[in-house]
Amino acid sequence: MRRMTQTARVPRPRQALAEPAPPSEPATGIPDVVRRRLSPLALDPYAWPAALFVTLLAGLLRLNNLASPPGKMFDETYYATDAHWLWEKGFEWNEKENTTGYVVHPPLGKWIIGLGEQIFGYNELGWRISAAVFGTLSVLMLTRIAMRMFGSVILGCAAGLLMAFDGMHFVLSRVAMLDIFLMFFVLAAFGALVLDRDQRRARWLRFVAAGGDPTAKGRRSRPPGEVPWWRLAAAVLFGCALAVKWSALAFAPVLVLLVLWWEVGARRSAGVRRPIRDTILDETGWVLAGLPLTAGVYLASWAGWLSTDGGYARHWLRDSGQDETPFLGALRNLAQYHELAYGSHQAITEAHSYQSVGEWAPIQWLLLGRPVLFYRSDAPLCGADKCNADVLLLGTPLLWWAFLPALLAAIWFGIARRDWRAGAVLAMTAAALVPWFFFPARTMFYFYALPAEPFLILAVVFVLGAAMTPPPGRPPNPDRQLYGAVMAGTFVLLVAVVFAYYHPLYTGGSLPYEDWSRRILLGNLWI
């Protein structure tokens, strides 16, 4: 009776977009509010086939004519070349000067690019195929993550389709640059934590269903110990993101915060008396256990540099007249390399014709203020006297211009409905964009916004879902659901139409000058 009194004080559940699935074990005697709060959202049995269909569509778009345009576009000059030499020598090499190459980004993204070169050859298809594969798989991940978060196949497919039809994601999935891999691993780490959230809440549900008493004292008040495998997987995936670009560091505090916040929520839903204190005591160890995993993955990405003798600063201690022990000396040399690379990052202030504007760069990204031209040819291949063939890194305008209103609406709905999904999406978006406000002097580019893109799409989908469902405490409204579904479908369809209209600018298709100029809506800002 005392346990029933305590758990009855749990706040009423927030409304979901789908009914909770029944627990895998009998839940007799569990208050309905506890069962609903801890049960995962149910998904239609066709969720996987629907997600795979969206992924197939994205893959066909990205793989079609992948080797065109010919040659190395924009920063492929660096990354495709570095990837080739990593696999040849174990470290980057400057062939023109016949000396060791000095680079400022970790190696993992280049290892992945080089894998495609090893399979398909040192050519356009070889150095672009890895980006296309990872870009396609990221569409599958986002679709499944959205289905998990919103309990809706429709909203999950909407998220996947919006990513599939985004020009920025599309272009960066067809070019040998690092950003698609950074975004992939950040999104994967987030997805692993969403699975961890479901796993940990199911753990508490099983505990209560078996007669456990969350209000008791000591070990009797919590489930038996269980390894949080998805949480540890997130640490590994975050290590991969860090091994692609250091900018992944901005996500570390947010990912840790999500782990603790969601664990507190699970315990509060189960009726634990002191959820915050118990979470800190019980989960800090598991959070810290992720540190060596992240560090180990990051260090492993430098295996080529560590196992060979020719990498830049590989024998800095020896060359500067200091003692160099076999293992610790190599790590000290690597630390010196990192110091030099950090200094180089700080010194990137040279003006570039396609750079974003200073301290307001993240806002400019959302407004499509300065896209990046990757390729241009004015060869008359379109049948007109004057033709343009571009590969322009430009997000699908209708989608990107919806992001700012969606963020504002997500804040409103998130506060009004106390919805954990809004908080998670907004926190990850902030991690991707806010740090760049603190480096106004650094030369920045629009593609730095790619890690934010999946979470911006989730913000749009969250708002579409909120439009389909009434506030908590009100009965379902079939008409509202229908109108909301039509609105969501119409928006996705319009984004697809706009993407198709801009497709020639994403792929280097030759257009008559008049047709090309009609697509350049913001004039000189886009060229």
UniProtKB/TrEMBL annotation:
InterPro entries xref list: ArnT-like_N, PMT-like, PMT_4TMC
Domain Protein O-mannosyl-transferase C-terminal four TM: 332-522
Location of region: Disordered: 1-31
Bilayer topology term: Multi-pass membrane protein
Domain ArnT-like N-terminal: from-to ranges: 53-211
Major localisation: membrane
Molecular functions per Gene Ontology: dolichyl-phosphate-mannose-protein mannosyltransferase activity
Recorded coiled-coil stretches: none
Enzyme Commission number(s): 2.4.1.-
UniProt-annotated location(s): Cell membrane; Endomembrane system
Keywords: Cell membrane, Glycosyltransferase, Membrane, Transferase, Transmembrane, Transmembrane helix
Pathway in which the depicted protein is active: Protein modification; protein glycosylation
Domain of life: Bacteria
Keyword Protease part of the UniProt annotation: no
Cellular-component GO terms for this entry: endomembrane system; plasma membrane
Transmembrane feature ranges: 149-165, 171-195, 250-266, 286-305, 398-415, 422-439, 445-470, 482-502
Family membership noted in the UniProt record: Belongs to the glycosyltransferase 39 family.
Function, in words: Protein O-mannosyltransferase that catalyzes the transfer of a single mannose residue from a polyprenol phospho-mannosyl lipidic donor to the hydroxyl group of selected serine and threonine residues in acceptor proteins.
Protein name: Polyprenol-phosphate-mannose--protein mannosyltransferase
Organism of origin: Catellatospora coxensis
